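Late entry, evening session. Most of the bench is empty. Finally got around to the prediction I had been postponing all week. Sequence below, unchanged from the version circulated by S.P.
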Amino acid sequence: MLVALAASSAAAGVFAGEMGLGAITPELPAVAFLPFFLYLAIFTGLAEEPGWRGFALPHLQRRHAALWSSWIPEPLIGLWHFPFLVYYNREAGPAALISLLPLLVLGPVGWTIVHTWAHNSTARVFIAILLHGWSNVIQSYVILGSPHPLSG
C-alpha cells in the first residue's frame, strides 16, 4: 500500500511535467537508505507519533469516525511542520512561503489517513513510528532529490 501510494505520487509529478525520471538525484547514496530510515524513524517518528497516533487519535475516535479523526488534527500537524518548511525554503521569500501554507496543511492528509488505518489495524504506535520514518525517507530520496520547485 505504501509503495503504491509513493509510486502514484511520483507518477503524478512525472505526468504533470513537474518531475522527470532522470531529474531525481538523491542526496544520500542507496547504501545509506537503511541507516537513514532508522534515524528518521527514531528522530521524527518517535518524536511525533506517540502524540499524534498514541494520544490524539484514540481521543478523537471516541467522538468521530476514523476519517474525521485523520482530518481534524491536520491543521496542527501542518503548523507543527511549518518551521521545517521555512528552514528548507528560507531563500524563497515570505510570499512564496505563505503561498505554501495551504499545501502544507492539506498535503499530509493522505499519509495521515494511511497512519490512522495502520494504527487502527494494528493498535500499535510502533507501526505509525515506522511509517513516519518510511514516508520521510521516501520524501527525502524522491522529493528532496528533485529540482526545487521554488528555485525558479
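Two things to note before I forget:
The CA atoms of residues 66 and 120 lie 8 Å apart.
The mean pLDDT is 78.
Will write this up properly tomorrow.
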